[in-house]
Structures are given as structure tokens and as C-alpha cells.
Structure of IclR family transcriptional regulator:
Amino acid sequence: MTDQSPTRGRGVQSVEVSVNLLTALARHPGPMALSQLAAEVGMAPAKVHRYLASFVETGMVQHRRSGSYDLGPRAAEIGTAAIARIDPVNRAADALPELVEATGFTALLAVWGNLGPTIVRWEKAAVPLVTMLGLGSVLPVTRSATGHAFMAHMPDRLLTDVVAAEAPERTLEDFGDLRMSVREAGLAMADQDFIPGLFALAAPILDLQSRPAAVVTLISTTRDLLDEEHPARMRLVAFAAS
């Protein structure tokens, strides 16, 4: 009798191949050429191309003008949703509207993704704030409050290459004082360092190993947010601790 188990057959094999291709794209720091991707997964370029054509049609992959391939908006949507279901992140996301209501500032929640700090939740305040940032945006480690909050608590081995890519003229050791000050204060700040006209305060949500499960950040168009006596500072620290 023929085995009709759903765990066997070409259908499941195709899924496994699809996952391998998408994983290779996700783990690569940037777009990949067809030949490069084929070599990475050990498949013939013609076969990889057929899969990629379907991925492009569904939005899982985007075909760039250069001819290379990269993850598409559908992949970002699925990845963001999966990350958001991690319990500490989910709890923080659920409570984010209360933080915005209490402080009056727009807030974002970020986790550490394949390319660095990635926004998984965006909660707008009543005061308008115009920015190109949104769900799925990757923030710089070296120039954003969110990135500094991650940098202060992440192990060096996960930061060295990211810092080198963002700031080739600097090393991770150059950020030693910054990392220590963020750990001591429990907060990181950006005084228009990343986006002109925007000020930010960020606090890490630490797990039992004192590693950042996520970072929550308040954003303002006025520098008042960075004042040491601003009540939003204590609310943000308390939010992250809770």
C-alpha cells in the first residue's frame, strides 16, 4: 500500500526546500545573486530560479534591479508576527498603549533581529510625529537610542560585526564608556543622533540573564524628553522593569 502520510512526498520536500532558501536569504547580511544563493543551498540555479519566481509573486522575496534577490514584505510581515509572539515581547506590546497614554509620547518596541534592532510594534501618540520609521525598520546600533540600549547589554560576539559595518572607523571598544553609562542609568538617549528633529529615550527589557529580550523607546520632536527630571523617564524605566 502506498504511504499517504503527510510527512512524506514531494509536497513536504518542496516546503523544506522553500524554508532552506528563505533561511539562506534571511541569514545573509544583504541581497544575494541567484548563483550565490544556489551555491549556498547546494541546488542548481535553474531550480532555485523556479522557487524564487513563486516567492516574488507572493511577496516573500523581492527581485532587485541589480538582479539580486532579497526578502520581501510578506517575509517581513511573517517574521515580525513570529517575533511578536515571544512572551516578554508580547506582554510589552500589549502594555505599550498604556505607556503612550501615560507619557504622551509615541513609543516603539524593538527586538534583536538578523540585521540588528528591528521594530515590531509602533504606538502613535496624539501629537503628530512624521517619520519614515515603521514596522520592520532596522535601527542602527551605533546611532540610535534603541541601538545603544541593545549594545549596552548584548554580548560582544553579536555586536562586533554590526558595529564594524555601521562605523568602519571605530571598534566596539570605542563604545565602552557609552555601554557602561547606559547600564548604570538603565536608559539610552539619542539627541537627534539618528534622525534630525527627533529625540529618543530607550530602556531595555531584560531577561533572567540580563540580556535584552526587547527595547522600548519613547520618541519626541522636542528635547524636553531628555531632561533628567522629565516624568517620562521614570515611567519608561518602570515599564521596562515590569
